[in-house]
Amino acid sequence: MKERAAELRAEGKKGTKKADGLQAVLDRIAQMAPEDRALAERVHITVTAAAPQLSPKTWYGMPAYANADGKVVVFFRAPTAAT
């Protein structure tokens, strides 16, 4: 919950820039366990190739992709983070 609160504060009224969101997603993927990182990298590649209009951002500390309205439509939750 603290991560989500920090994300909302960072977005502010105007929202984060796409480059900032991309860097946050890549940083979060890099922090994952090796087996989770491999899955998250494949999801990232697939989503960015199939839907380049989606903006990367973090959602509850995990990689996510939002539409033009800022609504998260795809997210990745690492299986080991669910415990």
Task: Write a short abstract of this structure.
By secondary structure, the protein is α+β, with helices and mostly antiparallel strands.
Describe the fold and architecture.
The model has no long low-confidence stretch (mean pLDDT 84). A hairpin with a 2-residue loop joins β1 (55-59) and β2 (62-66). Helix content is 49%, strand content 17%. The protein has 3 helices and 3 strands. It has a 3-stranded antiparallel sheet with strand order 1-2-3. The chain has helices at 2-11, 18-31, 34-50; strands at 55-59, 62-66, 72-75. With 83 residues, it is an alpha+beta fold. The chain has one domain. The relative contact order is 0.18.
How is the topology of this model organized?
Blueprint: H1 2-11, H2 18-31, H3 34-50, E1 55-59, E2 62-66, E3 72-75
Antiparallel strand pairs: 1-2, 2-3
Strand order of the largest sheet: 1-2-3
Task: Tell me the count of domains.
Answer: 1
Overall mean pLDDT score?
84
Biggest sheet overview:
3 strands, antiparallel
Written as H for each helix and E for each strand, in order along the chain, the element string is HHHEEE
Keywords:
globular, alpha+beta, 83 residues, 49% helix, 3 helices, three-stranded antiparallel β-sheet
